[in-house]
Structures are given as C-alpha cells and as structure tokens.
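User: Please fill in residues for this 572-position structure.
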C-alpha cells in the first residue's frame, strides 16, 4: 500500500517497520512530528524527555539493553545532547541506535544555522541524509542496520524542507527485530580513561570500514548526464538540482559522512565542470578539494540560507526567473503573540517598568518585537537565568532592575541548574517562570509540569513552587499575568528584595481546548478618547481603522487586558 507521508511521519514509519522499541525526544521544530507520529504506534514506547541530553541517554540505555532505539531533536538540541552522544561513539551499541537531527537552513524557527555534519565529524558518527519521504523511511531502517552491523550510533540528518514536505511512500510490514541479549561488558560501556583508550582505535577502524561501504552502497548513487556539468549533492538540494539542471550528471550522496573517495574522483573525471551544491557548510566541497579535485561550491553559492531551483539556475546557467508583481504594497505579517496569550501581560508590565529582561526560547521570545520590545537577550534554552546571574556578578546594581523570564518547559529543560547556581553563588535576582501549562511554541507538547505523558497517560506533575523552594528559594509566589496591577506590584517587590526570588506567572495557553474566555469585547466610540493605549499591548485583535482603534470580533476572545489599560473605560 502507498500513502502520502510527511517526511517526519515517514521517519516514524521507519521506526515502526524497523522494529524500534524506544523513542525519547524533546520537541524542537522541525523535528517535533517524528516523535508525535511514533507515539501513534502501540508497539513503540515514545516519550517526551525533559531535554535532549536526557532523551539521548534514554535511547542509549535502551540500545545497550538490546532494543532498537532512537532520540529525535533539532540541530541546536544536538548541542545539548553532545556529551553522551560523543561518548556513545566510543562505546558503540548493542541494539541499533539512531539519532534523528533536523537542521533548519533559513532559520524558520531557530536561533542559528548549524550543520549537523560538522558535529557528526567531530563525534565520528556516520550520517545518512534522505531527500524525500520515501528515503526518510528507508534510510531510517538502513540506519538501524548500519548501527548494529558497525557497532555505532547513526545520525539521520533531516532539514526543514525534507521534514515538512510530503511525498508517496510504500508502506511495508514491520520487521519484528529481536531484542539482543544484554551482556555485562565494562570494557565496552564504562568509559574510564583506560577503557576509552582501547575503544578509540576501534572507532577509527569503524570509520574506515564505513568509508569502504560508501564506495559501493547504493545510497550513494550516480545519475549520468551529458558530460558538461556534474553536480555532487545531497538532501533537499538534490531535488532542486534535478529540476534546475535536468541534463546534468548527478552524484547523489545518501551518506554524507564518511564520504566515498574513489566514487567522487571517478565522477569528477566524467564532466567538464563539477559543482558541489549543499546547504550550509561546505563539508563535501572541502572533502573534494582535499582530494585535489577542481570543484565549485561556496565561491558561487551562499553559506547561509536555503537554496532553490531559481538560485541554481541563476548561478550555473545565468538564467533569471520571471516573477510577477503587483503594484499594491502588501501589509507585513510579523509573528505575534496570540489573542488571549498569558505572556502578553508579562511583557507589557516589564516594558512599563523599564527593567532589563534576559529572555529565553519559547513563545515569549516574541516579546522582543514591537510594540512590547521588552526582551534584552535570547541565546539558548535556559540561558536567561545564567545570563542574569552573570550580569549581577559583573554589576551588582543590575539585580535591582533585571528579570529573567522562561517558560515552564524551558525551566525543566535547562533552567533548574541556573536557579541552583543563583542560590549557590548568592545572586539576588528575580526569575519569572511563565507557566502556560504546555510546551507552546512547538505545538502543544506535554512536559513534566503538565501531568500527562506524550501518549496522554496521567502522570506526576512537577510542582514548580515546591521545586523552587527545595532549591533554596525562599521567596516564591504565583501571580496571574492577566492581573496587571498585581503582577506589577509583585515584580517591584521581588526586585527590591535582597535575595533570589521566583515569580510564577500562571495562566494556561489561550489555544488549549479546555481554556474558556467570556467572549469578544468592543470599543464604545463615545467614550474612546483615541489615546491608543490599547494598541500598546500588541493584541492581534486590535488594529487602527481611520486612525482609531477597533477590535476584530472574530479574533478577540475577551481576555480583558485591553480593558485594564483603557483609562476612560471605553472597552467592554
């Protein structure tokens, strides 16, 4: 049977057909749906872990126990998981271990453009790169096979376009992979220096063996051309090349680390001009040039952003794509917090107080944009607390005017240790945990504070108040972010306190099914003085028409924030 599947959905199908037993992940676009789809198979135990490091460790444990296992994450999540990932390259595995890592060229939902191949090369872990949904499924199954045959974790590298595009996939019956027996073997799995020294040569031999495989395996395939232009490519770039250059010869690399030396050399001999077309880092290009081959890559193609058929035609053929334009200027549509979002009151209040705000990764990052513009920094998951602490140590007076904000899921992910550091090293700053009862930005995933697992089972919910107090925070309070006066007073009081404090701003995400609002409000034009204070909360339901604010009844849900900022009382 054939079915149209999302790339991420096809990876999950690959887990099922390969007989994978355990999948542990942390949600991160564009990888999130892999685990969500895996959870639909009863045969697979799938979970959301607190962070990618824990997810990788869980998958490693399952693989060492003999089961086929996987951990899924986005590219920056691999940074979090790097500690166990680098070392499991030395230990090897027992059951197959696949790490699904989705890169994000173009930064559709990420804070950087990072090429997972660079990390894989440093860790000495082989990389497979599918270019469509069929390959997503088949390469996932292949990854488990290679993992077990070569005693190695395998990285399946996706990108946004492959993860989120759809194509036809042949569905097969699952392989009832037998769980391998666990045998105690400290020399293999206990990475003390003496054991690690023995394992390292085995890693080097493994990579040489995989290099030999890369020469003959059909996942690295050559497609003949007319002898003039040859292209070495992989992943979604392959799709662009095939459309832009139908006459070109193509060496499509399904394994991008290690690379096939002789296959690449022989391919280059057949063509007058050879291009290496790869998004982000020049990994394959550098390999070719180290072999002494003349190829063209990043001197013609950009290091940043996504490629396209039009870009390839322009660079190689000099063709410019005809585009059609309209005379009217279209309105911009920047990302914005939803109507009724509980984070809006927090940002409005922080901006009103003029405090410095160290931010974090989540929906609340949008507070950096107009009209809020309350955020000062955003680096990575959990960084807000550590950065606030560092600012105080650099300038003690900053503690009186600095707040760190992060979400409930982010706090569990990597904020707890920052709070421990604050207490231990005697900071006096104020942390705000914006608890919206879900992992919001990636599409409403459960987390350890929600009381439900990925599969919807009821479980223990972490009590944030008790947790913070157990870490040594004496000043812990819960505030309603829709109560602007109460929230403002709370922030002022905690900033004035000369000890560390935590404010939990608790309101569920407005998009959760169980959240009910009273209904839309409207503006009484007779009372409105056109002060435009309601515009300053940045609600998408409020706009200007003929120079005066109006409320869109189809968008407004009646959260009441605009009523609180309207001094004349014109909103009701």
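Assistant: Residues filled in for all 572 positions:
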């Amino acid at each position: 049977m054939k079915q149209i599947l999302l790339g991420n959905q096809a990876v999950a199908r690959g887990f099922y057909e390969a007989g994978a037993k355990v999948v542990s992940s942390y949600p991160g676009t564009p990888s999130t749906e892999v685990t969500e789809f895996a959870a639909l198979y009863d045969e697979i135990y799938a979970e959301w872990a607190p962070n990618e490091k824990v997810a990788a460790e869980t998958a490693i444990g399952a693989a060492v126990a003999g089961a086929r296992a996987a951990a899924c994450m986005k590219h920056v999540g691999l940074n979090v998981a790097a500690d166990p990932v680098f070392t499991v390259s030395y230990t090897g595995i027992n059951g197959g271990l696949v790490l699904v890592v989705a890169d994000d060229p173009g930064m559709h939902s990420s804070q950087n453009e990072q090429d997972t191949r660079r990390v894989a090369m440093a860790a000495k872990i082989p990389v497979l790169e599918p270019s469509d949904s069929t390959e997503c499924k088949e390469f996932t199954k292949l990854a488990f096979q290679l993992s077990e045959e070569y005693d190695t974790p395998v990285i399946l590298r996706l990108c946004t376009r492959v993860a989120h595009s759809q194509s036809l996939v042949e569905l097969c019956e699952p392989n009832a992979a037998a769980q391998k027996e666990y045998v105690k073997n400290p020399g293999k799995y206990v990475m003390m220096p003496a054991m690690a020294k023995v394992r390292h040569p085995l890693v080097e031999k493994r990579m040489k063996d995989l290099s030999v495989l890369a020469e003959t395996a059909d996942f690295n395939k050559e497609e003949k051309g007319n002898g003039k232009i040859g292209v070495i490519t992989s992943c979604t770039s392959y799709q662009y090349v095939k459309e832009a250059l139908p006459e070109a010869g193509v060496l499509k690399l399904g394994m991008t680390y290690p690379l096939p030396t002789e296959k690449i050399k022989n391919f280059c001999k057949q063509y007058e001009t050879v291009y290496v077309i790869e998004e982000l880092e020049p990994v394959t290009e550098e390999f070719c040039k180290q072999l002494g081959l003349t190829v063209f890559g990043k001197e013609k193609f950009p290091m940043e952003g996504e490629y396209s058929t039009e870009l390839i035609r322009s660079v190689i053929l000099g063709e410019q794509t005809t585009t059609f334009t309209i005379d009217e200027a279209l309105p911009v549509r920047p990302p914005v917090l939803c109507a009724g979002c509980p984070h809006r009151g927090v940002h409005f209040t922080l901006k009103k107080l003029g405090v410095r705000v160290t931010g974090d990764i989540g929906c609340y990052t949008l507070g950096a944009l107009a009209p809020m513009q309350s955020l000062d920094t955003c680096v990575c998951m959990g960084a807000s607390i550590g950065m606030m602490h560092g600012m105080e140590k650099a300038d003690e007076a900053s503690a009186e005017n600095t707040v760190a904000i992060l979400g409930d899921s982010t706090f569990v992910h990597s904020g707890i240790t920052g709070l421990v550091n604050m207490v231990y090293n005697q900071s006096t700053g104020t942390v705000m945990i914006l608890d919206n009862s879900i992992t919001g930005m990636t599409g409403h995933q459960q987390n350890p504070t929600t009381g439900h697992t990925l599969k919807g089972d009821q479980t223990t919910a972490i009590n944030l108040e008790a947790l913070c107090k157990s870490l040594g925070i004496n000043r812990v309070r819960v505030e309603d972010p829709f109560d602007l006066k109460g929230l403002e007073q709370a922030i002022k009081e905690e900033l004035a306190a000369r000890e560390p404090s935590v404010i939990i701003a608790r309101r569920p995400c407005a998009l959760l099914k169980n959240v009910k609002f009273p209904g839309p409000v409207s503006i009484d034009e007779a009372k409105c003085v056109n002060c435009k204070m309601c515009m300053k909360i940045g609600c998408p339901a409020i706009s200007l028409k003929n120079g005066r604010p109006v409320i869109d009844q189809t968008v407004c849900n009646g959260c009441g924030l605009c009523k609180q900022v309207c001094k004349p009382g014109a909103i009701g």
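For context: The mean pLDDT is 96.
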